Description:
The chain is α+β, with helices and mostly antiparallel strands.
Amino acid sequence: MLDKNMEFTGFVEALGSNGEGIVRSEGTTFFAPYTLTGEKVKLKALKVKNKIGYAKVLEVYTPADERVRPVCKNFMRCGGCQLQHVKYTSQLKLKQKTVRDALVKIAGIDTEVLPTIKSDEPFAYRNKLQIPVGVGADGQNVIGFFAERSHRIVPLKTCPIHPEWAETVIAVFYTYMEKCGLCGYDDATGRGDIRSIVVRDVAGNLIVTVVATHRDLKGIGELIRLLSEKLSSFSLYLNLNDADTNVVFGEEFILLHGAGRYTATECGIKYEVGANTFIQVNSGVCRKLYDRTVKAAAESGCTAAIDCYSGGGLMTAMLAKTLGKAYGIEIVREAVDCADGLKSLNKLQDKMSNRCGKVEDILPSVLEEVDADQCFLVVDPPRKGVDRATLRAILKSGVKKMAMISCDPATMARDAGILTGALTEIDGELRKNPDYRKNGGGHFKIQCVQPFDMFPQTKHVETLVLLSR
């Protein structure tokens, strides 16, 4: 029996859902990040319980053909990327397998999963930087990403999955904090001035948000001066968050410099983005995903669409332009305001309607306004997936064709299971229904499962599921 801190040698049999290697030794199944199928490796047991263990790779004796040298010197220390050691073509195959495995294991759905659509830019693809600011063991400020499964910040000055402007912004904040005597946030004590830096790139215009614990942040003029020296176009917000929480933003945003919102064009639609408006982090893959979704809506024969979790309204506008009428439902007020502005920018006032609130509260009333039989439904929820009440409302409605976009294979499989009847709820617990294919017309059938690599070098994958009944 292997115990904690013991070293051992084994062979990687397969990869898990998070891209970690699976190694079996002395009756225990170990998960070992940064290893690949077929490799002979030397491991150190970090945790062992009930024949399940987690291990750290110490040496790779026989590297797999898929292994490459990581670009980032902080890889394996920083928790941002999990797959930089894997050839990009192999990353795509791994994510296809991850989606298929989730459907089978979680929902009992055995269906074809198409090859993952690649990102044309495997590096420097992110249009958003969200990075914590803290205090190191030596008491000095640190800006970086959290180590895997930790709140320990790994300090960095650059990140290869972000564009060059990220390095510039990080350097500016190190200088600013040192000059003005400001401290990063200490999770243990709840003390400090700055908790996070969030930056969005909107067509070359940067929206920089400083998340601080108080509003009287020293040296704002100096920060604006430093940013102005390095950036050609930017806005600066102060966000107040003094709560004991892992949520990045507090409720109050204060505009300190610049326009605050910027307009860009994507997929033929002019749209507006603010500091808290949701947009996909990979613009190139977003374009492919949205085009494919709208194409499905156009081919459905429907005359209207409902876009749930609609963000700033880009998808809603594309659907309105294609089908003639679309309704967006979004909980963030700023995003709804941007979506309303988008209507005027694209002359869609009579074709597009935006509602602010929770999807589970608003969707039933919107369904009453439309001919559900002729309505194409899109759900693009956050990582936690679609609310159970929303899924019940969809099943009760007359909607016959829909698209589900998900950034989490596990919640995607769960929600697809409920919509297809592969999962049934008994006493509040979801259970697999092996005879779900015999279900009547009340449930949906999966027509297509298409992964998109929205997040190269990481374990994450975006998935489009098309359903009909």
